[in-house]
């Protein structure tokens, strides 16, 4: 697929999913299998617009807390040029945690790759990456072509979402959710996240958020979580009412789902929780 052909294909896409599939087909022609489009800042991940990775990669990445020691994120903050992951340790010595993250990612199916950073306002970075699932040698002659494809994909993504690519706030789209029971969406994950935050605050004797959460959570989402055993009802001795709380299964999901971690950051802001009472960026 030529650059012009991909441009035409991208313009014809009507959903983010179609756009991701088109980009994946384009980079497969130069030997890559994986695609990741993430938005990051100095605190780590902000959004996951597009992720096409093998098997349980996202879950393993989150469980191992790779976000805080990903050398690719660190490198993206220092350059505006495309870079190959293999070149990072040639420029500097990786820390023990960074080496561990590299090992985890390789075992999970992202062995080596190329990342293209697009720097925006306030330190935000749109980081598009393509990667291999094994030790196959990368053809670095394709750098310019992949960078052009990535630029087209990013521009079309923001255009589809109705935002300027230099907007300070990211678009809100119905990104596919990975993990959890069949049919789980970001809306279900967000409901579980809010319930988990409320329960955590209750355990710390902080202001109760149970009532305010009801204005942010759809009853159908709670019903879904109850049916799958991710949320349970517990009697509240203080209010003499029942409250929702995450079950062990729900707590495990919140601790290992990459989407849940990102949603928790946004939820704290939406609920007006003071900074002093919010979980640390990498707190699990």
The neighbouring-strand order within the major sheet is: 2-1-5-4-3
* CATH fold-level assignment of the largest domain: Beta-Lactamase
What's the helix-strand series?
A: HHEEHHEHHEEHHHHEEHH
**Percent range of helical residues:** 40-55%
Work out the strand percent.
Answer: 15-25%
Name the CATH homologous superfamily of the largest domain: Transcription factor LuxR-like, autoinducer-binding domain
CATH architecture of the largest domain: 2-Layer Sandwich
Mean of all residue-level pLDDT scores: 83
* Structure summary, number of beta strands: 7
Quickly count the helices: 12
Please report the first level of CATH classification, the CATH class of the largest domain.
Alpha Beta
First-residue to last-residue Cα separation: 43 Å
Structural class: alpha+beta
* Gyration radius over CA: 20 Å
**What overall geometry do the principal axes of the alpha carbons give?**
globular
Short note summarizing the structure:
The protein is built from twelve helices and seven strands.
What does this protein look like?
- The chain is of the alpha+beta class and 284 residues long.
- The chain folds into 2 domains: 158 residues, Transcription factor LuxR-like, autoinducer-binding domain (Beta-Lactamase, 2-Layer Sandwich); 92 residues, Arc Repressor Mutant, subunit A (Orthogonal Bundle).
- It is 44% helix and 17% strand.
- It contains 12 helices and 7 strands.
- A 5-stranded antiparallel β-sheet has the order 2-1-5-4-3. A two-stranded antiparallel ribbon has the order 6-7.
- Helix 2 packs antiparallel against helix 7.
């Amino acid at each position: 697929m030529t650059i012009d052909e991909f441009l035409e294909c991208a313009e014809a896409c009507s959903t983010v999913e179609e756009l991701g599939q088109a980009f994946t087909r384009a980079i497969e022609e130069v030997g890559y299998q994986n695609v990741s489009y993430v938005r990051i800042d100095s605190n780590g991940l902000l959004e996951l617009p597009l992720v096409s990775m093998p098997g349980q990669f996202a879950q393993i990445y989150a469980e191992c807390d790779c976000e805080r020691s990903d050398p690719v994120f660190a490198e993206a903050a220092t350059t505006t040029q495309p870079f190959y992951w293999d070149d990072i340790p040639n420029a500097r010595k990786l820390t023990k945690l960074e080496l561990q993250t590299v090992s985890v990612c390789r075992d999970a199916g992202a062995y080596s790759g190329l990342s293209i950073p697009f720097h925006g306002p306030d330190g935000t970075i749109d980081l598009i990456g393509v990667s291999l699932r094994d030790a196959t040698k990368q053809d670095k002659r394709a750098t310019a072509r992949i960078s052009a494809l990535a630029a087209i994909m990013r521009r079309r993504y923001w255009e589809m979402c109705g935002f300027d690519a230099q907007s300070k706030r990211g678009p809100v789209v119905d990104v596919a959710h990975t993990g959890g029971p069949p049919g789980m969406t970001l809306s279900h994950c967000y409901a579980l996240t809010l319930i988990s935050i409320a329960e955590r605050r209750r355990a710390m004797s902080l202001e109760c958020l149970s009532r305010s959460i009801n204005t942010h959570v759809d009853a159908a989402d709670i019903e879904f979580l109850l049916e799958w055993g991710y949320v349970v009802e517990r009697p509240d001795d203080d209010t003499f009412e029942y409250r929702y709380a995450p079950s062990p299964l729900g707590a495990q999901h919140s601790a290992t789902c990459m989407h849940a971690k990102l949603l928790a950051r946004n939820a704290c802001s939406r609920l007006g929780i003071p900074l002093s009472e919010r979980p640390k960026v990498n707190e699990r």
